[in-house]
Amino acid sequence: MAARTEHDEQADPAPSPGRPRRGRVAAVVSVFGELLITAGLVLGLFVAYSLWWTNVLADRAAHKQSDDVRHEWARGGGTDGAGGSPRTYDSKDGIGFLHVPAMKNGEVLVKKGTDTALLNDGIAGYYTDPVPSALPWDKKGNFTLAAHRDGHGAKFHNIHKVKDGDAVVFETRDTWYVYKVFKELPKTSKYNVEVLRPVPKESGKTKPGRYLTLTTCTPVYTSDYRYIVWAELERTEKVDKDRTPPPELRDAP
Question: pTM for this structure?
Fold first, then answer.
């Protein structure tokens, strides 16, 4: 190996005082970038879980529970009116199915209560608190329902598509209850319980009737406010042996 000369030693550049500092900065930037990427992936997985996977799980649960109710009906369980079976119409089994063609969400099983755990199964619930709901077969009152707008089945995701004059149908074992939408309230406080009253003033109604109220969160992907839709019972139809739906469902696009 050739000996190094004085010229060679002088030619070698001396270490720059700035290099170690730039190297540390680059390392910090690199680590920070990796943390941002990781955080982005975690956030993306959380969003996918919240908006997709919870829907998958909720739909499975809802289908199972809906099938159980229909099997019970096929066996002859439950009747409408004052003589209705408490086990079928005021219990955990479910009282019937909500159909809102404008939402394009199929049939929605309705159960007693609006607890988060219950709604997370991809169903709707009727209020027991702070203002107890009437039931469709009651002579007067407000049948008040809640369901998720996003995630967990998102059964009321398209509530903004429901407009005046649209049909809302509630199905029990024996009866079709056909309602007609007459007013929407796109935004109100989550603490506004007046919308659940037997005669909700903001709906424009002043006398007792047979009303139906749909409630859910708004804006989309938040729970800051509530979106309200009101409807009034137009008529009832007895369910025939073939369970032929009323025209409002048969003619829906």
Answer: 0.78
